[in-house]
Amino acid sequence: MTNEEMLRGEDAVLRDYLTHFRKTFERICDGLDAEQLARRSVPPSTLSLLGLVRHLAAVEYSWWRRVMDRHLELPKMWGKDEHRDADFDGAVADDAVVAEAWAAWRAEVAYAEEFQATHAMDVLGQHDDGDIEMREVVVHLIEEYARHCGHADLLRECIDGRTGA
Question: Which top-level group of life is the source organism from (predicted)?
Fold first, then answer.
């Protein structure tokens, strides 16, 4: 790596890390069927790979559409207002549920990438606690994905023994 490549700036570095973890998460889930994705491999936890897909779609939706694009009036995804664990409880072994979850996740990632491409890191979103800079959201999402990639890797290992994405 040259010095020029290393000095890409905060925006590029943060985007690259977020992209890396999004792709890592997707690779961890690759090749599994609906039953495997919905499997709760670590009882009594409700955690499943499909639940994580739904959860990360909801996280992307909330941070980018509701907070950064300042549409707090939008309802939360998957009925989270009524039931805190709806992301995971609704993650059932059904091909339609799997397709819906991946479609939602991909749509929200695309929305996020478009938002980031058209706004500076210091743009302000509106959070319940006040304004928040996009850089804070991106760093939070890097942390969120990194943590959940660790969960996903362990869940995947319990399903079929595969490790490392």
Answer: Bacteria
DSSP 127: E
Q: Tell whether 131 is covered by a domain.
A: yes
pLDDT of residue 81: 55
d(CA 31, CA 35) in angstroms, rounded, equals 12
Distance from C-alpha of 10 to C-alpha of 87, rounded to nearest angstrom: 32
**Rounded distance between C-alpha atoms, residue 160 and residue 155, angstroms:** 9
Query: Does 4 map to a domain?
Result: no
Tell me: the pLDDT tens digits for 57-76?
999 999 999 999 999 889 88
CB 153 within 8 A of CB 16: no
Torsion of the alpha carbons at 131, 147, 6 and 13, rounded to the nearest 10: -30
Higher pLDDT, 127 or 5: 127
74 phi-psi bin (left φ>0, alpha ψ -120 to 50, beta other): beta
Q: What is the CATH number of the domain that holds 131?
A: 1.20.120.450
Residue 89, token pair as written in the block: 């409880």
Q: Is the pLDDT of residue 80 over 70?
A: no
pTM of the model: 0.91
Question: Domain range spanning residue 152?
Answer: 9-160
